[in-house]
Design brief:
208 residues, two-stranded antiparallel ribbon, 7 helices, alpha+beta
């Protein structure tokens, strides 16, 4: 592993939005350019998934405290608009645009913080050999495009699937999704499957 950086249920859907508010996609930190992502993809090791033996989300301690807020709260504040928080740093109002399905929500309970590369996928890709401290860094990464606020139902649909198995319903987000996924896999020296490699190659070819 070369470089440091779950979900909760929600309520009813908020209002509709056909296009994201200004800067909605730019909240993902550390996105590579398409050419950079292609180079990163070429450097990844293609391998069969490792077994899930011993896997537990407890091996990825997440939502760590930083400056009086949890990482989850920080991402909600980062990815939302006009977010107001209570004395415990918990967002109580605001709006969140979920780029996975291009919908806007006004109830923070509707929002999950998605691990771009899911914890179980990381385990199958090499994180099984990390220490819990290294896995904690991965699960709380605010520097790379690993954490993103999305609707809870869509995040549940994603589960721990890789891009060859599941993609966001909004095709307009597929390029960004591939950039982020590739970047995280490269940052943490995780492996990819042959099918994953093929799908990422195709997705990166859709980037303008």
């Amino acid at each position: 592993m070369s470089d440091p950086p779950a979900t909760e249920s929600g309520g009813e859907q908020g209002g509709d939005a056909e296009v994201p508010p200004d800067g909605a996609e730019s909240t993902l930190p550390g996105l590579p350019t398409p050419d950079e992502a292609r180079d990163q993809l070429a450097a990844l090791t293609v391998a069969e998934p490792r077994p899930m033996t011993g896997y537990s989300r407890d091996h990825f301690p997440h939502w760590a405290d930083q400056d009086g807020c949890t990482v989850r709260q920080l991402v909600l504040r980062r990815d939302g608009e006009n977010v107001e928080v209570d004395d415990d740093c918990q967002p109580v109002s605001g709006t969140w645009f979920s780029p996975y399905e291009e919908q806007e929500y006004s109830d923070p309970a509707d929002i999950d913080i998605d691990h771009m590369v899911p914890l179980a996928n990381a385990w199958r890709s090499g994180a099984d050999s990390w220490t819990d401290d290294e896995r904690e860094t991965f699960a709380n990464d605010l520097t790379h495009p690993q954490l993103i606020a999305v609707n809870d139902r869509v995040n549940s649909d994603k589960g721990d699937q890789s891009p060859d198995e599941w993609l966001p319903p909004a095709e307009a987000f597929h390029c960004t999704y591939a950039l982020a996924w590739t970047s995280v896999k490269h940052t943490y020296e995780l492996t990819i499957t042959e099918a994953e490699h093929e799908e990422l190659t195709a997705l990166l070819d859709t980037c303008a």
